Amino acid sequence: MAGMTLEQLKIFLAVAQHLHFTRAAEELYITQPAVSAAIHNLEQEYGVKLFHRIGRHIEIAEAGKLLQVEAQKILDQVSLTERGLRELNNLQRGELKLGSSLTIGNYWLPSKISEFKNQYPGIQIDCTLANAETICVGTAMGQFDLGLVEGDVKPALQNTLEYEIVGSDRLQIVVGQKHPWFEWGEVDLSQLTQTPWVMRVRESGTQQRFEEALQNWGINLSELNVILVFTSGEMAKAAIENGVGATGISELMVKKEIQLGTLRAIRVIDNREGNGAIAEIVRPFFKLKHRQRFQTALSKVFEQMLISSMSDGSYQHLSKSVI
Length: 323
Known about the structure:
Layout: H1 6-18, H2 21-28, H3 32-46, E1 51-54, E2 57-60, H4 62-86, E3 94-101, H5 102-119, E4 123-130, H6 132-140, E5 146-149, E6 161-176, H7 181-184, E7 186-188, E8 196-200, H8 205-216, E9 225-230, H9 233-241, E10 246-250, H10 251-260, E11 263-270, E12 277-278, E13 281-290, H11 297-309, H12 312-319
Parallel strand pairs: 3-4, 3-5, 7-11, 8-9
Antiparallel strand pairs: 1-2, 5-13, 6-10, 6-11, 6-13, 11-12
Helix pairs in contact: 1-2, 1-3, 1-4, 2-3
């Protein structure tokens, strides 16, 4: 038996994706007869039908569905092995794939990437930004070498993903100049239910942490008057700058606006036990990686840089968190 080749697997996956021989050929820059021959040879070699020909259309058969899953695993592993081999040159070249939730990716991560690029200028860094849930799933699926999120890792993924704190920030309750709280500067917990709120979608790490803090403060989300829900913190920030609502947002995102005086961070006083303590929301930044997938040398070096750059003060910062 001649056995299947990587080229045949690449051709098969293209046909399985498009369910069309000509489109697969165009994607791979080969001829349509070459595609047909590759599929025919695989079917002849193993005595199975990979596709059903129905008129001018094709449908993937059961054997094809099995091969589609396994072929993708094989090609992914080959790609990782090739990357690993290329890195055996003292990290002079290579590619690092990162996935980051929005706040981290826009405000915290760029300086880390710049530091890494200064040390390893020949390395290409591909960073994808999305909400925390998407980054967790993508890291579990092998789309990213490392993920960085400020939200929780769902229990269903905790056996797949290894996660570690590499930083932190505070969430602040912020209002614009038109809001009555802007002049006050502080409110009691009981007053949080007395204003309109601008929120993030539930998949957002910021929103997950904010809702967790509310629960710890004895406030149910249903008690709040939520007037707007946005997919990004930038949209929420713009809405409260021009309106009368309040929002819970990363201090990293509003640092400039607070300095300019267009927004104000509101202290929240925990008056439940009469001690007048300030209720803070401090959240960790998590580094994610797959527990079993091959980790490239680049990924290990970048991971170690993140860990070593976190000062002891970050842990102390987290220890004061109310959530």
